Amino acid sequence: CPPANQERFANGKLVTVQFHPSAQVVMTAGHDRSVSLFQVKNFSLNPKIQSIYLESFPIYKAHFSVDGEQVIATGTHHSMFFVYDMMAGSIIPIPKVRGVEEKFLRNFELSPDGSFMLLIGTSGYLHLLSMKTKELISTMKVNGRCTASAFTPDSSKIYSYSKEGEVFIWDVRSRKSLHKFEDEGSLEGKCIAVSKNNQYVACGSSSGVVNLYTTDACLKE
């Protein structure tokens, strides 16, 4: 297959490559401050649909919304983020979320039901936003520094992984901590994922080890 982005190679590091949830489209985004969309065709040219340029905004992470109508993009050294509305063709800056006091907003997760955006802040703070209004609903806090989070497939719970190797489980509705456990042998928590059938949780640490747990055990032991 030819390169997906052959009609516009990035001038800097790519940080995101993601397929559209329903269309034959792939998105690339990176440090050259651009988000590009390409149509994916089998064994032929992958024509560029469009590129948007965010001035003075090297991208840290970009993600399609669940309905595929928006792209959310955070920067490497910014407290703001951008929403690209693909239906309207407009770029909407979100300069400041009221109640969120963060110097940088980089990492985030979107809930599978499309209702929430979770901003992973510094000093262990997790900011839950309404995906519709981009306004703050509530803030949660883990011990230490949170490095990664993941929603369960039904969007009812959040698993947050700290740099110190602890995993905190939150109830989305009440924003209360349900349980926490220590990831066995973790030197430094890096990434976490919940399986689509909600049976397993995978925790990856800087040692290169990925530990797999059943969600039943995570909630009890």
UniProtKB/TrEMBL annotation:
GO cellular component: Pwp2p-containing subcomplex of 90S preribosome; small-subunit processome
Entry-linked InterPro entries: Utp18 (IPR045161), WD40/YVTN_repeat-like_dom_sf (IPR015943), WD40_repeat_dom_sf (IPR036322), WD40_rpt (IPR001680)
Keyword match Repeat: yes
Localization in the cell: Nucleus, Nucleolus
Keyword terms of this UniProt record: Nucleus, Repeat, rRNA processing, WD repeat
PROSITE patterns: WD_REPEATS_2
GO biological process, one term: rRNA processing
Per-repeat ranges for WD: 150-180
UniProt record similarity statement: Belongs to the WD repeat UTP18 family.
Stated name of the protein: UTP18 protein
Lineage of the organism: Eukaryota, Metazoa, Chordata, Craniata, Vertebrata
